[in-house]
Every structure is written in structure tokens, then in C-alpha cells.
């Protein structure tokens, strides 16, 4: 990374990539907005406001990128390594819960319900941490399953599938 | 007197068993998350919003408000006992509070924080009640142009006062505004940026954004850092009461903190955080008596003043929300969302159309503050125990309640996918040093800004100048925004400002 960009002399890595992110998102929204009617100032179409904001965002993004190449910061303001393990496990736990809760009709996966989902989520999420003691994780999952059942099913009476589809039919 | 009859109406609503119960639940949860580092009021309120759908609107808002100011009390406990601020607004409390704890004076420090907070909270509630009426009357004079200009000023002030990098914060606001544009346009009925996904034509839910960015994003960010070694001064908490000398030092500090906190809480971008920092900075400038402990070495004034200020600010930051409908910080942005869910349009009409909600909420805040003193002083041992609960039990629970909660809002699994996506986005923001609070403000205000802009320009026949600059109130608001930005871009002030934010971290 550092070698490749040496000639550009990035003074703040965080700001440089934030700037690029803002430029990208701004272009995407501005471009997307042109698909809708823009209209005129006294009769704004649905594309007017997002187009304006998209352009504003590109300008801000350019300013931030420019600043990151010119203003010296302490230590280069490095982004640092990405925490891959927590990212994968936390988001994975979330997605696994969704899949288990409702199933994936697209590939014919039946719903397993909330209780199975709670155990899967707790185990997966716990793997994101540094210390994993499976006995504790299972106790935690059981406690959380109980709390969720009482709070969401009994007290709030939410329409959440609780048990696997093959049990409830 | 009008104020008295209004307040008695409010107390009539707040002192029903049900609402006392919800205020209590809010305060307990608030104290809990205040004590627990790694989870803040924004993520908690987002997490609990789905739960409040089933409640009557007054009870829901009473509980959510309790979480916010409860967190200010709880946050001080960790600052004093472990030198770890439970909330950003209690960062400065660490400086002198922790020193007092090390000298075996944790009791007086905790008492100073709790009593100062209670006094400040009570004053904050009174300020809120007194300001509400005149500001509401002013708000009724606002047309779309004034509202638009007010929102511009509010957003600018919010980023100027509350964030590190000014340009990035403004870009985050714009990103929030753009995300707010996703979904069906109210005027034309066109589904914007929905990629033909039916769920997206309703727009992105603010619960999804708040949970994803403030919940998941922050968790991943926290897990990246090593778990902190905590040294808890549990054994040393005996003798809660400050000495007479402490009281004499404390009382004026509490007064100063209350005034500063109340004033700064009203400002856009204010709230609890800003007041606490300003109060500590000013307290340090007030002459220290020769027999007093130096600041940074365990001066009780260094605890009493910022703690009073953060609590006063937490109360008075409700003023712009309840009177103008403009949220001054991320927590208030969520309150806007909570009100909208219950079909209450935040703004001046709340007081006229829902007086029992308006005054009931205000009265409940005072009751809540009273509860918090009771919760925090005698029960301090309980909270100390909670401090030793490791984060590894906490974060799976947060992920779970976000996932179930977001599903239960619409009973649609699509929301679970979205919360995961925004969790990733949130972590990217953490890594890039982009503060997410301005994004949430922009997101909440986006649709309102577009609508007022459209109407203001329509009325003025499409002429920007006559729409905004020819109307005195709107021109005043906009030029204040420009002035604020210009001041911040002056090199000398910018340096000072950046210094101040570096110091905070």
C-alpha cells in the first residue's frame, strides 16, 4: 500500500479513503438521480434534491481528498488493519439468524425458528471475541433464548416463528 | 399561572403507576448502559424502539427519555471507579473522579456526581418547561423557508460543535440526507433508488441504520481493541457522604455546571457532551483556594461541575426537539423517529395537539431524576458488580436483540439483511474516522428538508434569492450558519478547535 502510493504522498490515509468513498457515493447518487425527472426550481422533480446533494457530496469528497494529500498529520493517520474475524463473525451471526429464523424459500431451506436462531447467533457472535469458553457460551445462549421468548413472544406477542417448521408443521 | 397548570397536567400523566413503571425501566436500563462501556444510548434506544411500538406513545417516550438521562448518571460511576468513561459525556469526570477514588474518596465523588446531576436535572426540566411556550409560539410563525434555513443552521451547528473533522462531518450529513431520499417521493410517487426492491420503496428504516451503524459497527470496532484491564475500586466505597468542606466547594461548582449545561444543551449539536467539557474547562479557570486539592489530583469541583452540566444538557436538548421538531443530536434524532412511529409529528403542534404527552414527558423527567438518585446512591454496590461483567457476554446479547428487534418492527427478514449491511458500513466509518452521528441527523431531517425546500421555492416562484434571503428570519438563520462555518474555517480557531477535540479523546 505505502509503496504504491508513495508518489502521491498521502498525508492522511483515513481522510484520503473517506474522500474517495464520498466521491464514489456522490457520483452514484447524482447519476442515479438523473434517471428521475429533475424539474425546475419552482417545480422540483424527484431527481432534483438527490442530484444537488450528490454533486455537493462529490465536491466535499474532492476537498477531503485534496486535504489528505496536502495537510501533514501525525503518523500519516493510518487506517490500520481490518478486524476481519469480528467482522465476519458478527455479521455472519446476524445473517445466519435471519436465514434460520425464516428459512430461504429461494433454495427450499425451511425456517428453523427463533430458538435455533438464538443459539446459532450467540455461538457465532461469541467466536468474534478473543476468549471463547463454550460452556459459558451455551449458558449465555440458553439465558438469551429464555429472555427473547419471554420478552418478544409472551410479553410483546410478536409474530415471530419460534420453533422449526418441521415441528410446527 | 400557566406554567403551573401545565406542569400539574404533566404530573397527572406522569404519576400513573404505568408511566412511573416505564420511567423506572428507562432509568434502570439507562444506568446499566451508562455503567457498561461499549454500548451507548443511541444503540440502546434503537434496540428498544421495536419494544415500544406496543406501548402508548407517552409511556414509550418516557421510557426512551429515561434511557438517555439515566445513561448520564451511570456513566459517571464508571468514570469515577474505573477511570473508564461509560459515556463520552463523562470523559472529563474521570480526571478528578478517579483520583478521588484512588485516595479512598470514591463515596464523596459519587455523591457529588449524583446530587449535582439531580439538581441540574431538576433545573434543566424547569428550563425546558419555561422555554417551551415562547419557542413554540415563535415556531408557529415559521414558513417552509424559515424551517429549511433553521435545519441548515441546525445541521451546520451540530457538526461544528460536536465532531472532529468539519469537512468529513458535513459530508456525513449529506450522505445522511441522500440516504433519506431513498424510497417513494411523496410528491411524484416515484420510488427513488429502490432497485425494484419493494421493501426499499418504503425507504430505509431509521432503526435499521441506527442499529447497524451504532450497534454492529461499534461492536466490531470495540472487538478490534484489546479488552481493557480494569481496576475497580470496589473495596473503597464506604462513607458516601461528603464532608462539610466538600459541600462548600461543590455547591457553586454545581450551580456553574448547571447554567453552562442548560445553555449549551439547547444549542444544536449540544446535549450532554458539550456541556460537560465546557463546564470542566471553566471550572478549572475559577480560582482554586489554597487549601483545595489541585485539579487533576482529585478536586471534588472537577466532578460536580461536569456531572451537573451533562445532566442539565441532556434535559434541555429536548427543547429544540419538542418545540421546533429539530433534533440537536443523534439521540434526539431517534426520538423523532419514535414519535413518528406513534403518528406524532414532532414540532410546535405537539404541545397544542398532545399536551398530555408534552407535559407528561417533561414531568416524568423530574420523577426520573429523583429515581436515579435513589437508584445510584444506595444501590451503588449493584452497579459495581455489573462493572465486572465481561464484554464477551454483552456483545452477543446486543447483536441478538438488534436482530430480533429489527425483525419484529415489520416482520420482514429483509430488515435483518439491511441491518447487517449497515453494520459493515458502520465499521467502515469507524476505520475511516467518520463520525456517524451527523449521518443520522441528516437522515432524519432529509425528507423534511426536501419538502420545505420544494415548498419555499414554489412559493417564491423558483427564485432562490427571494425565497430565502428576502425573508428576514430565514436570512438571519442562514447568515448565522454561514458565519459559523466561516469562523470555523479561520486558521487560528480551527487549530484551537482541533486541539480541543484531540484533548477529548
In short:
Chain A is an all-alpha fold and 169 residues long. Chain A contains 6 helices and 2 strands, in the order αββααααα.
Give a description of the structure.
- The complex is a heterodimer of chains A (169) and B (505).
- Chain A is an all-alpha fold and 169 residues long.
- Chain A has two domains: 6-77, no CATH class; 84-168, no CATH class.
- In chain A, 61% of the residues lie in helices and 2% in strands.
- Chain A contains six helices and two strands, in the order αββααααα.
- Chain A has helices at 13-33, 48-70, 84-102, 113-126, 134-155, 165-168, and strands spanning 39-40, 43-44.
- In chain A, a hairpin with a 2-residue loop joins strand 1 and strand 2 (43-44).
- With 505 residues, chain B is mainly alpha-helical.
- Chain B has one domain (2-504).
- Chain B has a two-stranded antiparallel ribbon.
- In chain B, a hairpin with a 6-residue loop joins strand 1 and strand 2 (191-192).
- In chain B, helix 2 (17-35) packs across helix 16, helix 4 runs antiparallel to helix 12 and helix 7 packs antiparallel against helix 20.
- The model of chain B has no long low-confidence stretch (mean pLDDT 84).
- The interface between A and B is large, with 74 and 65 residues.
Amino acid at each position: 500500500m505505502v509503496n504504491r502510493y508513495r508518489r502521491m504522498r498521502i498525508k492522511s490515509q483515513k481522510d484520503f479513503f473517506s474522500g474517495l468513498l464520498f466521491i464514489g457515493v456522490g457520483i452514484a447518487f447524482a447519476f442515479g438521480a438523473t434517471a428521475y425527472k429533475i424539474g425546475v426550481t419552482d417545480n422540483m422533480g424527484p431527481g432534483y434534491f438527490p442530484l444537488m446533494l450528490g454533486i455537493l457530496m462529490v465536491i466535499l469528497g474532492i476537498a477531503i481528498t485534496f486535504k489528505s494529500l496536502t495537510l501533514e498529520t501525525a503518523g500519516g493517520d493510518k487506517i490500520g488493519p481490518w478486524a476481519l474475524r469480528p467482522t465476519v463473525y458478527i455479521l455472519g451471526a446476524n445473517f445466519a439468524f435471519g436465514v434460520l429464523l425464516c428459512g430461504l424459500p429461494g433454495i427450499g431451506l425451511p425456517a428453523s425458528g427463533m430458538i435455533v436462531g438464538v443459539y446459532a447467533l450467540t455461538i457465532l457472535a461469541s467466536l468474534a471475541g478473543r476468549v471463547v469458553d463454550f460452556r459459558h457460551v451455551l449458558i449465555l445462549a440458553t439465558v438469551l433464548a429464555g429472555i427473547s421468548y419471554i420478552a418478544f413472544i409472551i410479553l410483546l406477542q410478536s409474530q415471530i416463528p419460534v420453533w422449526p417448521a418441521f415441528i410446527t408443521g | 399561572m400557566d406554567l403551573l397548570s401545565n406542569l400539574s397536567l404533566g404530573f397527572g400523566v406522569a404519576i400513573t403507576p404505568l408511566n412511573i413503571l416505564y420511567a423506572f425501566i428507562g432509568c434502570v436500563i439507562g444506568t446499566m448502559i451508562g455503567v457498561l462501556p461499549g454500548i451507548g444510548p443511541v444503540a440502546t434506544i434503537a434496540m428498544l424502539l421495536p419494544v415500544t411500538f406496543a406501548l402508548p406513545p407517552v409511556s414509550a417516550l418516557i421510557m426512551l427519555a429515561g434511557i438517555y438521562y439515566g445513561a448520564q448518571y451511570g456513566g459517571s460511576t464508571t468514570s469515577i471507579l474505573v477511570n473508564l468513561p461509560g459515556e463520552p459525556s463523562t470523559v472529563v469526570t474521570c480526571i478528578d473522579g478517579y483520583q478521588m477514588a484512588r485516595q479512598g474518596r470514591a463515596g464523596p465523588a459519587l455523591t457529588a456526581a449524583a446530587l449535582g446531576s439531580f439538581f441540574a436535572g431538576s433545573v434543566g426540566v424547569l428550563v425546558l418547561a419555561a422555554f417551551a411556550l415562547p419557542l413554540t409560539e415563535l415556531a408557529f410563525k415559521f414558513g417552509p423557508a424559515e424551517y429549511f434555513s433553521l435545519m441548515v443552521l441546525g445541521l451546520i451547528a451540530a457538526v461544528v460543535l460536536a465532531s472532529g473533522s468539519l469537512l468529513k462531518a458535513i459530508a456525513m450529513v449529506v450522505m445522511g440526507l441522500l440516504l433519506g431520499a431513498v424510497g417513494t417521493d411523496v410528491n411524484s410517487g416515484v420510488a427513488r433508488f429502490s432497485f425494484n426492491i419493494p421493501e426499499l420503496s418504503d425507504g430505509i428504516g431509521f432503526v435499521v441504520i441506527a442499529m447497524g451503524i451504532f450497534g454492529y459497527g461499534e461492536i466490531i470496532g470495540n472487538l478490534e481493541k484489546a479488552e481493557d484491564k480494569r481496576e475497580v475500586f470496589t473495596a473503597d466505597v464506604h462513607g458516601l457522604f461528603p464532608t462539610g468542606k466538600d459541600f462548600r466547594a461543590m455547591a457553586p461548582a454545581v450551580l456553574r455546571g448547571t447554567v453552562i449545561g442548560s445553555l449549551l444543551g439547547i444549542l444544536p449539536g449540544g446535549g450532554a457532551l458539550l456541556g460537560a467539557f465546557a463546564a470542566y474547562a471553566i471550572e478549572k479557570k475559577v480560582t482554586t483556594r489554597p487549601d483545595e486539592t489541585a485539579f487533576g489530583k482529585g478536586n471534588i469541583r472537577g466532578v460536580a461541575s461536569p456531572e451537573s452540566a451533562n445532566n442539565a444538557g441532556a434535559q434541555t436538548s429536548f427543547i429544540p426537539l419538542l418545540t421546533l421538531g429539530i433534533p440537536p443530536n443523534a439521540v434526539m434524532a431517534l426520538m423523532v423517529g419514535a414519535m413518528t412511529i406513534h403518528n406524532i409529528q414532532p414540532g410546535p403542534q405537539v404541545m397544542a395537539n398532545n399536551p398530555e404527552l408534552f407535559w407528561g414527558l417533561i414531568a416524568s423527567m423530574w420523577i426520573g431524576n429523583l429515581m436515579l438518585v435513589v437508584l445510584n446512591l444506595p444501590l451503588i454496590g449493584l452497579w459495581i458488580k455489573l462493572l465486572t461483567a465481561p464484554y464477551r457476554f454483552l456483545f452477543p446479547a446486543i447483536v441478538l436483540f438488534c436482530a430480533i428487534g429489527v425483525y419484529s418492527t415489520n416482520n420482514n427478514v429483509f430488515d435483518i439483511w439491511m441491518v447487517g449491511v449497515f453494520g459493515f458500513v458502520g465499521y467502515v466509518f469507524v476505520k475511516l474516522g467518520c463520525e456517524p452521528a451527523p449521518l443520522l441527523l441528516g437522515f432524519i431531517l432529509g425528507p423534511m428538508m426536501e419538502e420545505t425546500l420544494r415548498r419555499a421555492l414554489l412559493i417564491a416562484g423558483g427564485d432562490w434569492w427571494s425565497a430565502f434571503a428576502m425573508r428576514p428570519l430565514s436570512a438571519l438563520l442562514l447568515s448565522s450558519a454561514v458565519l459559523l462555518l466561516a469562523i470555523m474555517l479561520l486558521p487560528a480557531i480551527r487549530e484551537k478547535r482541533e486541539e480541543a477535540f484531540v484533548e477529548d479523546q
